[in-house]
Fold this sequence. Notes:
By secondary structure, the protein is of the alpha+beta class.
Amino acid sequence: MKKALQLAVFVLSVSLLTSCGKTTTINSNMELTGKWQLESIVQENDTIKKPALQKGAFEVSLNFKEKGELEGTSSTNYLTGFYETAQQNTIQLGGGGTERTETSWGNLFVNALPSVNMYDLKPNKLVLYYDNNSALIFARAQ
């Protein structure tokens, strides 16, 4: 009886430990959730820093919500859509938004979004990769 109890505790412990390893994507999503502001864009090894905010323009941001919902703003438009992550930090974004003319900063962002296919989370930084060596670099919004 005592051996059976020890075996049951061992099996339960191993089960709990291995099941934690299988939830990587869920944990990544939880860290991904929240609001992020675009700080810079890297294109062909050239880094473009966020310009001063123009009068009447929005901060370029994405808000990853639970259950795959996505909201955001470009320089002049509101965005809504979805996101889905998978193993090896792949990500798919989709959706649409209003259609006001963008600033050049907003155009860079809006044109890159459909090509985003991978992401990387760092302390208070989110990097969305697109078109091979290009990236959108975000800081977590307070």
